[in-house]
Write a structure and sequence with these properties.
The chain has helices at about 35-45, 65-70, 95-110, 125-130, 135-145, 160-165, 185-195, 220-225, 235-240, 255-270, 275-290, 315-325, 330-340, 355-360, 365-375; strands at about 5, 15, 15-20, 50-55, 80-85, 115-120, 145-155, 170-175, 200-205, 245-250. It is of the alpha/beta class. It has two domains: about 5-285, NADP-dependent oxidoreductase domain (TIM Barrel); about 315-375, no CATH class. It is globular. Bound molecules: NADP nicotinamide-adenine-dinucleotide phosphate (NAP) and iron/sulfur cluster (2 copies). One iron/sulfur cluster binds near residues 307, 309, 311, 353 and 355. It comes from Lutispora saccharofermentans. This is Aldo/keto reductase. Keywords: Iron, Iron-sulfur, Metal-binding.
Length: about 375
């Protein structure tokens, strides 16, 4: 295992972290986790050098923290740094911060959390938390020892990312980053900004939630096949992220022992700056080829929302694009079925036109929603 050193983090962390958001399931329900298998998987990763485990209050419908707590019994707690996240959508008053942190400590059955994150910061949550003095609470929890390091995970634009980075002396932060997301959310600009302030960065979705690790479409496979060194798409994806020196830990939501083994092996030699220029050029070609398969140029800005008829417009477009870009046929149709169950699917559009007037990209939203329903609603 490769361990990177950052002053702010204390002990060395394994560059591969275990993300407890995609544990093995019985069926499709994220709340129905195969508990014994998950515990075995987490311990297997720890036995093989992983020392950073990332969970959150809401993962697996609240079960993830409990399962991680169980996995860390029998001496495993002392072998790892444990990360979990404040459920910021539930903390509406100062007292809530204590309430949820104490509940999390109990669920995890631990006296302290090594890495605590304000989860999923965006404009709305950051303004709300700032208004109820979250940073005073953070100081207090650091002082009384319930948390050892403080950071935040982030899903919004890079200007807000910089604002939050500058607002506190953070120990670390967590962003979504992979070779398809260089200019998405915090992106490379955010990564480099955090690095310039000596704030180590943890990476989530390094394989775009698994889309970059699946069997690729033929035209993408043709590019990978030309590489001098043969590697799986998952290995290329992880290596690309680990090539950045600002990255402290790459989190991977591994769901099988085989994935754990492969990713540990990758992490051993994926040093910062270790990719050759021709390898970087090849990965760029892959990302351009994926991008050329986009069907609708929705940026996910959300200006078209809310739809009076509840259609979740950007998400309908995202899974429609995924269907064409990554050939995620089953995933996209499953997700569309779920949208339909919640009355948020493209089929619920009544063509009032309100969203089109608000879209800065001038997208023909109504016409495209019909196409989405035609393809994913089959
Ligand atoms: N703070 C936040 O807002 C937030 C948001 C997202 C994620 N996270 C954290 O970040 C972690 C990492 O994100 P992620 O789980 O989306 O990571 P990811 O690495 O992008 O995707 C994980 C998926 O990739 C596939 N995979 C991984 N290694 C593979 C391999 N060697 N070969 C083939 N497939 C492989 C698996 O898919 P299959 O299971 O389908 O095989 C796995 O479930 C999460 O688990 C969570 O802890 C945090
Ligand atoms: S046109 Fe359709 S999707 Fe757009 S706001 Fe009206 S009902 Fe919603
Ligand atoms: S306003 Fe347009 S670009 Fe933005 S999310 Fe809606 S459809 Fe996508």
């Amino acid at each position: 295992m490769q361990y990177r050193e950052f002053n702010k983090l204390g002990d060395k962390l394994s560059v591969l972290g275990f993300g407890a958001m995609r544990l093995p399931l019985n069926g499709d329900d994220p709340g129905n986790v195969k508990e014994k298998e998950s515990i075995r998987l987490i311990r297997y990763a720890i036995d093989n050098g992983v020392n950073y485990i990332d969970t959150a209050y809401n993962y697996h419908k609240g079960k993830s923290e409990m399962i991680v707590g169980k996995a860390l019994k029998d001496g495993y707690r002392d072998k790892v740094k444990l990360a979990t996240k404040m459920p910021v959508w539930l903390t509406n008053a100062y007292e809530d911060f204590d309430k949820y942190l104490n509940e999390q400590l109990q669920k995890l059955d631990t006296a302290y959390i090594d890495f605590y994150l304000l989860h999923n910061l965006n404009k709305k949550y950051w303004r709300k938390l700032s208004g109820i003095n979250v940073l005073d609470f953070v100081d207090k929890a650091l002082q009384d020892g319930r948390i050892k390091h403080i950071g935040f995970s982030f899903h919004d634009d890079v200007s807000l990312f910089k604002e939050i980075i500058d607002a506190y002396d953070w120990d670390f932060c967590q962003i979504q980053y992979n070779y398809m997301n260089e200019n998405f959310q915090a992106g490379t600009e955010g990564l480099e900004y955090a690095g310039s302030k000596n704030i180590p960065v943890m990476i989530m979705e390094p394989l775009l939630g698994g889309k970059l690790a699946k069997r690729p479409p033929k035209e993408i496979k043709d590019i990978w096949d030309k590489a001098a060194i043969k590697r799986t798409p998952a290995e290329w994806g992880l290596r690309w992220v680990l090539n950045h020196k600002q990255v402290a830990v790459v989190l991977s939501g591994m769901s099988t022992a085989k994935q754990v083994e492969e990713n540990i092996k990758t992490a051993e030699t994926a040093l910062p700056g270790s990719l050759e220029q021709e390898e970087l050029d090849m990965i760029k070609k892959v990302s351009e080829k994926y991008r050329s398969r986009i069907k609708v140029d929705c940026t996910g800005c959300g200006y078209c929302m809310p739809c009076p008829n509840k259609v979740w417009i950007p998400y309908n477009f995202e899974i429609y694009n995924d269907f064409y870009m990554y050939e995620t046929d089953r995933y996209s149709t499953d997700m569309y079925r779920r949208l339909k169950t919640g009355n948020q699917a493209a089929s619920a559009c009544v063509e009032c036109g309100k969203c089109e007037a608000a879209c800065p990209q001038g997208l023909p939203i109504m016409e495209t929603l019909k196409k989405v329903d035609g393809i994913l609603g089959k």
